[in-house]
Design goal:
The structure is a homodimer. Chain A is of the alpha+beta class. Among the domains of chain A are: about 120 residues, Uridine Diphospho-n-acetylenolpyruvylglucosamine Reductase, domain 3 (2-Layer Sandwich); about 110 residues, Alpha-Beta Plaits (2-Layer Sandwich); about 80 residues, Alpha-Beta Plaits (2-Layer Sandwich), CATH 3.30.70.2740. Helices cover about 35% and strands about 20% of the residues of chain A. In chain A, strand 5 and strand 6 form a beta hairpin. Chains A and B meet through helix 7, strand 8, helix 9, helix 11 and helix 17 of A and helix 7, strand 8, helix 9, helix 11 and helix 17 of B.
C-alpha cells in the first residue's frame, strides 16, 4: 500500500526574508538553519523530511508571534517535542518550519493539596516524574520514551502507555492547557480546577490533536499520590484465553491497586532475550504467553496479601502455569527491561519491520494476530505485545527483506480491524505514517466535522500540514 | 443583578403546519401539546418557560429527522432529560420545542471484561446503577438526583457529584457517544475503545456542552468494579484549616480507597436537622465543620484497618475532635441523608434562596464563604456544603424576603471568584440562570472560539437557544 502525499500548494516556501523576520523577534540561540538532521527525521528513521529552519522559542509570546506571522505568510509549521512519534507525527514533509519546544522547559508550580503540577510544554517526561516524585506525587503516565519525550507532546498525542489501566486517559488528567493558535491568540485555561462546567471544554480538543490545531505551551496535570508500595509479577500462560481470564481475575482480586497488566507473546520474548542486553528469562520454562502485573498501593502488607491471594487462585484454577514476584528493584528492572525492550529488539531483528498499534475487544485481540500470522505465512514473522488490559496491542510483521510483505498485509489488515470495530491507532496517533487511513476507524461524517473544527482554529492550514487527513 | 434575555428573532414560532409534519413522522404517543407544565419549568420551580410542543422520539433516526426539520425551518429545540438542572438548562424560553429523551431508555449491552455499558441517553441514572450493580460493576458517578436524572443529561452537563474525587470526570469515563447534530447527521463513536487516537476527539466537545451543539442519543460508559467493602465516617472539626489538613491526611492514609470527602458547615447542618425527616445528629456534641468520608475497596479487613489508622492519627494530631464510623446500612443511610438533604432543607428554610456552585483552590474555599457572610451581614444567612475534596463548594445565601440581597451579593460575589481564579460554575453548568456570566471564568478569546465551534455544529442556532452565551 504505497501512499503518495499530496503536494500542498497553499503553503509558501521559507525565504530569506522570513528568516530575517524571525531573527528580528527571537534571540540568535533560538534559530537554527544548519545541520537540521536530528529534527527532520523521526527517531525510528523511517520518515525523513526536510526543513530549512528550526525555531526554539523560550516564551509563549514568542510562540504567538511566530504563529501569527506564519499564518499571515502561509508558512507551514511543525510543532516538535521529543520527536519520539512512532507515526512520523513531528517530521516536516515539504520544508515546513520546525517549532521545537525544547526551550520551553520550566516547571512552574505544584499544588500540594490537590496534587496538580503546572509546567511548560517542553519539560521532559522523566524530569517531571522526578520533580513531582520528590514531593510525594506521581505522573499518571509512563512511557518507554520518558527520557526524551516531552509533556506537551504527550498531551498533543494523548499518550497512553503502561499505567493507563489504572489512571486512565489524559482527557481525565489534564486539568488545564495554554495553547497558541495560528491567529496568534492565546487560549489560556490554566486555572486547573478539578471541576469547571462553564461552556464548551475546548482544551479537550487539543488533547490528541497531533499539533494540527495549534501549539500547546503550558500544561496543568492532575497527579495521583505516589504509591508507597509497589509489586511486580511475571507470569506464564499456555493460551491467550487464559490471559484474558487472568485479567478478569486480577481486576477482581487486586481491584484498586492494579496499575499495569501487560502482555508479551513467546515470539516477541525470544527476540527480546536475544537482542536486549541484561535481560534474563524470568521463569523456569518457556511459555506461550507472558503477563506482567504491577500493583501500586498505600499499604505494603495488605497489597502483598492481595497479590499472593491472586497468584494462588490463578495457579489453582490453572490460569497461569508459572509466576514469580520481583524480590527487589533489580529484579523489577529486569522485568520492565524485558517489556520495554520489545520495539528495540524487533527493530534489530527485522530487515523490514511493519508496526501496528491497534485496539480491539480484549477477547479477540490475539485471534486477530493469529489471523494475520496465517495470512503472512512463511513470508515473515508476526509478534505482539502490549497493554492487553486496555484492549491495546502492538503487533509487528517482521520481514527479511526478500518478500513483499506490503502486498500481503495491506489493506487486508486495516480492513480486518475495521470489520472487527477496532481502532487502527490505539495510542500512536495517525501522523504521517497513517495519513489517509483514519477512515478505517472513524466515519465519514466524523472526519468531515474534524476538518470543520480544524478550520475554526487553523483556517489557512499551516499547522502540522500533511498529517492525519 | 437583573438579566434581560435577548429576544432572538432568528427562530420561527411553532405553527400548526410544523406540528402536522411531526405527526407524519412520529407515532401519536411521541407528541404532546396539552398541559406541558412539568416540561416547561425546572424542578426548582425558579425558571418558568413556555412551549407548545413536546416530542418524545423513540429512535435515533427519529431524532435525526426532527433535528433536520427544525434546522431547515429554524425552530428552536431544547433537549430535556430528567429536567433536574439547577441552572434552568432544560427550560424553554420562547416557545422552543422540547425534545424529551425519556422514551430513549434502553440499556443496550455490557462488556463484562472491560467493564463498559452501552445505553440510550434517556436511561435514568439509578436504573443504570442497578443494572450494572447486578453484574458486579458500578457507575463512576453518583448524584442526589439519581432517581430522575438521565445518563444523557449527565453527560451533556458533565455531571460531577459525590464520587468524583475517586473516579474523576466524565471526560475520562465516557468511552463513546452517539450524537445527532442539527443537519440531521449522526456522529457515531460507540466502539467504546479505551484507547483510540485517530484524529480529533469530537465526542469530548459534547461532554458538558449543555445541549447547544446537538443531541446525545447513546452513551458508552467505562465502569469501575463494584467495591466489595465500603465504609463511611462522620467527623467533626473545629476549623476549616483542620478540614483541609484532614483531607491531606485522608489522601495519604486511605490512598486509592478514598471515594468521597464531603463537607458540611454548622449553619447548613442545623437547618438540615430541623427540616429533613429521619435525620439524627451523628456526633456527641456540635462542631463548626463536618466531614463525611467514604472508602470503597476490595478487601474489607485491610480497608477497615486503613480507616482506623486514619481516624486514630487524625484524632491524635487534633485534626478532628469527634468521629463515628457507620456500623450498618441504616447508619450509612442516615449519614448520606444528612449530606444529600442540604438543598431541600435550605429551600424550605429560605423565602429567598441564592445558590452558588463554585470551584476555588481548596485552602481558600471557606474563606470565600466567610467574606460573603461578612458582606451579607444581618441581611441574610450564608451556608455551604459540598465536594471539598474536589475544590467544589455549594454556597447559599438565604433571605427572609425582606432584604434586597441581590444588590448585596451581585456582582461582588462573581467578581471575587474571578479575582481568586475560580470557576463560577463547578458542576451545575451555565444554562439560563448564569447566561452571560461565563466571562467571569473564561477569557474572551476562549468564549469567541466556543461560539465558533458551536457554529460548526449548529450554524442556524437552533439548539437550546438562550443558554450559556
Amino acid at each position: 500500500m504505497k501512499k503518495f502525499f499530496r503536494c500542498f500548494s497553499h503553503l509558501q516556501e521559507v525565504k530569506d526574508s522570513h528568516i530575517s523576520f524571525f531573527r528580528s523577534i527571537l534571540p540568535s540561540t533560538s534559530i537554527e538553519t544548519e545541520d537540521l538532521s536530528t529534527y527532520t527525521s523521526d527517531w525510528l528513521k523511517v520518515h525523513k523530511g526536510s526543513s530549512k529552519l528550526v525555531l526554539k522559542p523560550t516564551t509563549t509570546d514568542q510562540v504567538s508571534e511566530i504563529l501569527k506571522y506564519c499564518n499571515l505568510e502561509r508558512l507551514g509549521l511543525v510543532p516538535q517535542s521529543g520527536n519520539t512519534s512512532q507515526v512520523g507525527g513531528a517530521v516536516p514533509v515539504q520544508n515546513e518550519i520546525i517549532l521545537s519546544m525544547k526551550n520551553l522547559n520550566k516547571i512552574l508550580d505544584l499544588d500540594d493539596i490537590q496534587g496538580i503540577v503546572w509546567c511548560e510544554a517542553g519539560v521532559i517526561l522523566e524530569n517531571l516524574m522526578k520533580f513531582v516524585g520528590k514531593k510525594g506525587w506521581m505522573i499518571p503516565l509512563d512511557l518507554g520514551s520518558k527520557g526524551s519525550c516531552m509533556i506537551g507532546g504527550n498531551v498533543a498525542t494523548n499518550a497512553g502507555g503502561l499505567r493507563y489501566i489504572r489512571y486512565g486517559s489524559l482527557n481525565g488528567n489534564v486539568l488545564g492547557l495554554e495553547v497558541v493558535i495560528p491567529s496568534g491568540e492565546i487560549l489560556s485555561d490554566l486555572k486547573a480546577l478539578r471541576k469547571d462546567n462553564t461552556g464548551l471544554n475546548l482544551k479537550q480538543l487539543f488533547i490528541g490533536s497531533e499539533g494540527i490545531l495549534g501549539v500547546i505551551t503550558k500544561v496543568a496535570l492532575l497527579l495521583p499520590p505516589k504509591p508507597s508500595s509497589m509489586q511486580l509479577a511475571f507470569l506464564g500462560c499456555t493460551s491467550y484465553e487464559k490471559v484474558v481470564k487472568a485479567l478478569t481475575s486480577a481486576k477482581a482480586s487486586l481491584g484498586e491497586i492494579l496499575s499495569a497488566f501487560e502482555f508479551i507473546d513467546s515470539q516477541t520474548m525470544e527476540i527480546i532475550l536475544k537482542r536486549i542486553p541484561r535481560t534474563r528469562y524470568p521463569l523456569a520454562s518457556p511459555h506461550n504467553f507472558y503477563i506482567l502485573i504491577e500493583t501500586s498501593g498505600s499499604h505494603s502488607e495488605s497489597d502483598k496479601e492481595k497479590m499472593e491471594h491472586f497468584l494462588e487462585s490463578a495457579v489453582e484454577s490453572n490460569l497461569i502455569t508459572d509466576g514469580v514476584v520481583a524480590q527487589d528493584t533489580s529484579q523489577s528492572e529486569n522485568f520492565w527491561r524485558i517489556r520495554e525492550g520489545g520495539l528495540l529488539a524487533l527493530r534489530q531483528e527485522a530487515v523490514d519491520l511493519h508496526q501496528f498499534d491497534f485496539s480491539l475487544r480484549i477477547p479477540e485481540m490475539y485471534n486477530f494476530v493469529e489471523v494475520v500470522r496465517e495470512k503472512v505465512g512463511n513470508a515473515g514473522k508476526v509478534t505482539a505485545y502490549g497493554h492487553v488490559g486496555d484492549g491495546n496491542l502492538h503487533m509487528y510483521v517482521l520481514g527479511d527483506g526478500k518478500n513483499n510483505l506490503e502486498n500481503l498485509i495491506y489493506p487486508f489488515l486495516y480492513e480486518e480491524i475495521e470489520r472487527r470495530n477496532g481502532s487502527i491507532s490505539a495510542e500512536h496517533g495517525i501522523g504521517l505514517f497513517k495519513q489517509g487511513l483514519i477512515g478505517y476507524t472513524k466515519s465519514e461524517t466524523n472526519i468531515k466535522y474534524m476538518k470543520a473544527v480544524k478550520d475554526v482554529f487553523d483556517p489557512r492550514g499551516i499547522m502540522n500540514p500533511f498529517k492525519i487527513f
